[in-house]
Structures are given as structure tokens and as C-alpha cells.
# Entry
Amino acid sequence: MDDETSVVFVMEREHRLAAAIYKQAFYEKGKLNCETNKLQNREREKLYLSNREKFHTDADKQYWKAIAKLITNEIANIEKRGKKEEQKPSQTKAWKAH
# Structure
């Protein structure tokens, strides 16, 4: 029985050792994934911030271009309305009282 119990103890020890190695590898893999995710997120954040900066500078330019275009169109419309009003003769009717 000593041989059987020693074999069981050896197998149990090997099993615990394999489990400890597996745990260590699992946690190291998790740490590595965490570090790579942090690096990737930093890169994504840098890209996002640069794109946001570019968007806002372009949006500001486009905003003023759109305002300039609207102003020129509105001035043309106002001038057209003014000309039409000037061209209309005023009509007055006189009513006779009986």
C-alpha cells in the first residue's frame, strides 16, 4: 500500500503543479492582453483626438463659408424684393360721395 499511496501522492503533486503552471500562464496571458489593450486604446484615443481636432477646424471653416454664401444669397433676394416694390405703381381709387 505504500507504493500505491506514494503513486497517488506523486500524481496529486503533479496535478497541483500542472494546475499552478496553468494558473500562472492564464494570469500572465491576461496581463499581457490588458497591456496590449491599453496600448491599442491609447493609439485609438490619439487618432480620435486628432480626427476630432481636424473635424472642428474644418467645420469652423465650412461654417463661415456657409454663412458667407447665405449672406450673398439673402442680399440678392432682398435687392430683388426692393426692385419689385419700387416698380409697382401705387394705385389709389377715389370714391364719389352721392
User: Anything to note?
Assistant: Residues 1-71 form one domain. Residues 2 and 8 are 10 Å apart (CA to CA). The mean pLDDT is 84. Helices lie at 2-87.
